UniProtKB/TrEMBL annotation:
<protein>
    <submittedName>
        <fullName>Alpha/beta hydrolase</fullName>
    </submittedName>
</protein>
<dbReference type="Pfam" id="PF01738">
    <property type="entry name" value="DLH"/>
</dbReference>
<dbReference type="InterPro" id="IPR002925">
    <property type="entry name" value="Dienelactn_hydro"/>
</dbReference>
<dbReference type="GO" id="GO:0016787">
    <property type="term" value="F:hydrolase activity"/>
</dbReference>
<keyword id="KW-0378">Hydrolase</keyword>
<feature type="domain" description="Dienelactone hydrolase">
    <location>
        <begin position="96"/>
        <end position="293"/>
    </location>
</feature>
<dbReference type="InterPro" id="IPR050300">
    <property type="entry name" value="GDXG_lipolytic_enzyme"/>
</dbReference>
<dbReference type="InterPro" id="IPR029058">
    <property type="entry name" value="AB_hydrolase_fold"/>
</dbReference>
Amino acid sequence: MKFKSFETPRRGPVAFLAGLGLALVLATGVRAQDDKMVPIAIPAQPNAIQLNTGPLPGATSPESWHSQYKSVFARNVTVATLTPFLPDPAKATGAAVIVAPGGGFRTLSMENEGWDVAKALADKGVAAFVLKYRLNQTPPDMPGFERSMKEMFSATAARPRPDPQTAIAGLAPQIADARAAFVLVRQHSADWRVDPDRIGMVGFSAGAMLTLATTLAGDDAKPAFIGLIYGPLSPLTVPADAPPAFVALAADDPLFATTSGFGLIDSWRAAKRPVEFHFYERGGHGFGMYQKSTTSTGWFDAYVRWLTMHGMLKPKA
């Protein structure tokens, strides 16, 4: 069973993610007119595999997509899917990564934090799988969606952000989707040339929170390694068998680069688990695979070197 990644044109929160729109503008450096949300048709996704978690309970708004920041986003996702991006068999390493885009659990940055990441991983010999997980419902029309986002930002801007473990408690549908993704990849590991012991997960912003939640859930969904890209740095309880973690954040991130310290990193170190932390001088929030003049653009190369250091990219005999 073989899948090829589908092609898309090259373009370009839970409540605690107030200020997301401003953060993305700061991150991408796009012009003001690129900030506008423009509805688009749902793109073809011929290789997307529907996960068995079922439709989002109580959902009334259908899935829709829009362009913004020279990229594309999905919202009102009610049925989760997983799309494989497989490397050339000649360069396949056996490693695999489930990619969780961000968007505050209201949208998904499918291109900048999904497809483009997966394509880059496949080019390095890593089987990548983009997780389109179920989202919190928003108004189906674009003006209503924009109003709901503005209302959320204004209502939560001054409210203290909950710690990650409190926020994780409200992510049952998304955690179920991530766990189902791990089960599916392991079921097809032979078909997709994947080593079941080398399946990791990388997440961006809200996707980083989902990656943490999946890690803490454990069992058959536990990642072998994780990447947390511009997610929260609040401390949490780290299990004794936590996987190696790669963490990247920009010092000018308006959401998570606070003066409260690096609790997440301290938690991983206190548990005596491997962790690598890149704190870039500039990059804002949402830099993902955008090519910028800031050093944050180098996160992906550093991540691949980190995977290599941990032996994840060394093919097994």
